[in-house]
């Protein structure tokens, strides 16, 4: 046999066996390939922010690119919307780490023929969201490119107690901090029509779709708690957050079959009338809540400290292997989690596919 051809065949066979990022999915890619090389505290290396010790205290540092807003599918992604999302996705990371945002740097790429009015609108949306959070724009960069994109990096001051995704407790209760279901109610209203909804409700839904509100004040409150909790932001949805928190802490979570979702009766009836599951609307991404695991002995104190925020008690957990089930016996569908490289939102090509993926397919089975 020709040794050169044999070597070539061997390389081809190896290439055929080489896994792709879609084989692993986002979560495994992070756990197995990227996080082992991350410097710093090993117990917090997969948290929403890096934790930096400085002479004056501890800083939080994170970065995220602006996602394509779902509002773009409905022709509502104004420059202000893009600016808002660039700030919100980064502010949410600071909130999940129990910190107070300080400021952001933003790197923008855009084609040479981009209208100045677009940049002004983007800045307006960015600055309005930062101002609401008490944060500043610290600088950044602009660059010529074939398409528009924006990436932010954000600094925050850590709270009195470091909040990570880790919790050492054999018995916990799972909570969501922040409203649920408004984002997907807006998607349904834009796709199927909003007939029957009041004008104030339609305005509320437009804001939920276009100008999301990260739970900045709630995050500051979490950083002041005198007891430990685990927290993760729900940028990929509460279902994804519950799975990741259960896996990381080796907790078996049992979710309530009918949580008391913080959604108005008007919208609950609206979703039902369109044949949309309330479960899908509330467990999928878009509402930017914070998912918290609280040791059972501190639940009363937690609920008291967060009483002026929207709280949803999702279920309870105990030491186990990381399973997420519903008390009626159903199990979380891992294939339905929103994650990059495995058919998540960034792989969607049309709005009908978006509806099918997140509103038609059951989250638990």
Structure description:
This protein starts with a helix and ends in a 5-residue tail after the last helix. A hairpin with a 2-residue loop joins strand 1 and strand 2. The model is unreliable at 1-8 (pLDDT under 50). The chain has 2 domains: 37-157, PurM-like, N-terminal domain (60s Ribosomal Protein L30, Chain: A, 2-Layer Sandwich); 171-360, PurM-like C-terminal domain (Phosphoribosyl-aminoimidazole Synthetase, Chain A, domain 2, Alpha-Beta Complex). It has a 6-stranded mixed beta sheet, with helices on both faces. Strands 1-2-5-3-4 form a 5-stranded mixed beta sheet. The protein has helices at 3-17, 21-34, 79-96, 116-132, 182-192, 199-210, 216-223, 238-249, 265-273, 278-283, 299-305, 351-360, and strands at 50-54, 57-65, 100-110, 136-144, 149-157, 171-177, 230-233, 251-255, 290-295, 311-319, 324-326. Helix content is 38%, strand content 21%. Helix 3 runs parallel beside helix 4 (116-132), helix 3 packs parallel to helix 7 and helix 5 (182-192) crosses helix 6. The longest helix has 18 residues, at 79-96. The chain contains 12 helices and 11 strands. The protein is α+β, with helices and mostly antiparallel strands and 365 residues long. The relative contact order is 0.15.
